[in-house]
Amino acid sequence: MRVFVTGGTGLIGSAVVTELLTHDHTVLALARSDASAAAAEAAGAEPLQGGLADLDVLRAGAARADGVIHLAFSHDFSTAEAVTRAVAEENAAVAALGEALVGSERPFVTVSGTPYVPGRASTEADPLSTEGLVGGRSRGVLAVLDLAARGVRSAAIRLPRTVHHQGKGGFAGMLTDIARQTGVSGYPGDGTQRWPAVHALDAAVLFRLALEQSPAGNAWHAVADEGDAVRDIATVIGRRLGLPVQAVPPETYGPLGAIFATDQPASSAHTREALAWKPVHPSLLEDLENLQP
């Protein structure tokens, strides 16, 4: 299958591209810069120059492909306005990709986060929240899944709060970056809130399985670790970096502070059974041992 991939040179995307190439697919990768194009080509993909705002380029990429995997997103979380702009840009992009696939029965795999459900781990059957700072992104994902009624084999991979590789990535990676900047390995609240996680290489396998097998209109959970206490995450980061570990105000994390302070475990039992997905790579706490001072 020839697969058009957006975000193919990021931490998750590069793993997805490798997974596809090693399973007899070919990849056309969106590349927003010369450096990204070179990285895509070095990985074995054909680069297509353009960014998420280049809707004609996205339509052309989808038209040239047997399936689409969308991963690109601006990770500027510095202000609420920046997040809002990123969500609007992404929603316009996935709408353009979807329209290019209508009536083709080709697969379109997009991405979201796992939902928050008070008092328990969320499941694939739980709805995404369309409220709050990133609620607009959920609306975009739901629109993609609705394309199942218009001849698109659409699916969504719900990623946990941390997708990691070699100790980098996701919310845990943000904790690490802030710890390096401030000299304190912090956690919001009492640190008992739980974050789910998955290794990027395991997540990549699930993207491929969804591309190949998912029935139209389904959402899947790429969750390996159902929920690690944030204080435990911060403790490993502090030990590896040689920094004190302590509670810090949620405001430390800017517009994501409220999300960081929320207990949000997630299950992937249905995904594992339905798609025969089995995570095999190191857990988050194990992977954080790769951090260097």
Automatic annotation (TrEMBL):
Cleavable signal peptide:
none
Q: What's the superkingdom here? A: Bacteria
InterPro entries, per the entry: Epimerase_deHydtase, NAD(P)-bd_dom_sf, NAD(P)-dependent_oxidoreduct
Molecular function via GO: aldehyde dehydrogenase (NAD+) activity
Give the record's GO CC terms: cytoplasm
Q: Kindly give the CDD domains that the UniProt entry links to this protein.
A: SDR_a7
Ranges where the NAD-dependent epimerase/dehydratase domain occurs: 3-217
Stated name of the protein: 3-beta hydroxysteroid dehydrogenase
Q: What is the species of this protein? A: Actinoplanes auranticolor
